[in-house]
Amino acid sequence: MTTQSLLERRFNVLGRHSPLFYEKPLQLVRGEGVWVHDIDGKRYLDAYNNVPHVGHCHPRVVEALCRQAGILNSHTRYLDETVVNYAEQLLSTFHPSLNRVFLTCTGSESNELALRIARETTGHMGVISTDFAYHGNTAAVSQISSVFTPASKRGPFVRYVPVMDPHRQRKPAEFYIGQLQEAIDDFARSGVKLAAVLFCTAFSSEGLPDVPAGYFPGVAAAVHAAGGLVIADEVQAGFGRFGSHMWGHDRHGMVPDLVTMGKPMGNGHPLAGVVTTAALMEAFTSQNMYFNTFGGNEVSAAVGHAVLNVLRDEQLLENALTVGSHVLRGMRGFRHECIGDVRGQGMFFAVEIVSADGKPDAAKTKRIVNSMREHGVLISRIGPHDNILKIRPPMVFTKDNADVLLSTLDTVLSEVS
Ligand SMILES: Cc1ncc(COP(=O)(O)O)c(C=O)c1O
């Protein structure tokens, strides 16, 4: 079976618009740690994927999954110690006020549930996100995921704040909090009350901007003053990705009302959740039964627990800080004209690619991503202008892996310049 004929078969069953990475799609057959292998036996360094958070096919995660699958897998309407143990350990990583969890299967479901809780408990409808956000694929969540939803389909209960652009316009926190206040005031003028602000705490799809100190606490104050709740989307930023903290909101000194999570939580197994306060859970569930057939079943709980244990035992947050600093130092030392800015922390980096006049260069960015793949390193691209290299490897990335990434990127940047 050639890759081309598999591609045709895929088009025939999944359609031509089902997204695929790369000009020449990549057919992966095996993964291990930070490495993946294609059908032709070529090995790639994975510097992109955050779902295999503790590494592809981590033996402890695979063992936990197989062991529990061979014992019992049902759902959360039966009493089970595995599930309670996991929920306790997960919640112990949060501020003490965030002490309740709903377990779901995807980040989209988690954001959908968080929106329901916010709207139900405040009695308000308005939601604010950024103007280049992705929060998921359900009907309500896609309305606030402006990156893929045209303005005409966003409805009357959604407002946006502009994406921060620190490379071109560095402003203090008050400036951006003022933009949020304008959106709240705009709602008020049309008679809509604020239910929630929903932000990714890393603004990942938006291009990983450096967020000024005081911004997130200022957001929380403005939102609470307007009678709304703060939803922190930790689908990309959570589980220690930034090394210094387990959660992105902790890194920004803010305690949200609701926290949504997914992707890395099950290392590839569909496990996600919403963490909130006892009061909000009580207010919502006393009026609405919430049940999720697959969310938080015994196998998912065993897998999630193994992920937390590996993060702790292999000291992967510390690793993210050490290796991450090495990567940042290396990239900041590059002397390529097309680099406009390098930023990031822990295991998450953004490199802005610009043309000679400093404008975003999407075409060159795309060439770099494809060329990196030809050279055996997987990365991607993000941002409103599609000109930001997105580098976000599994947390087990080592200094040696980092050196391969750095030397390959250096070579490719020289080639495209
Ligand atoms: C920040 C953020 N939130 C939510 C989601 C949706 O998660 P899922 O694809 O698991 O539904 C994504 C997915 O890319 C995301 O990046």
Low-confidence stretches: none
Q: List the ions, cofactors and other small molecules found in this model.
A: pyridoxal-5'-phosphate
N- and C-termini, Cα separation: 37 Å
**Strand order within the widest beta sheet:** 4-10-9-8-7-5-6
How many strands, what sense, and barrel or not for the largest sheet? 7 strands, mixed
Share of helical residues: 25-40%
Structural class by secondary-structure content = alpha/beta
Count of beta strands = 15
**Strand content of the residues, in percent?**
15-25%
Shape, principal axes of CA atoms? globular
Question: Assembly state here?
Answer: single chain
The Cα radius of gyration reads 21 Å
One letter per element, helices H and strands E, the order comes to: HEEEHHEHEHEHEHEHEEHHHEEHEEEH
* Total helical segments: 13
Mean pLDDT: 96
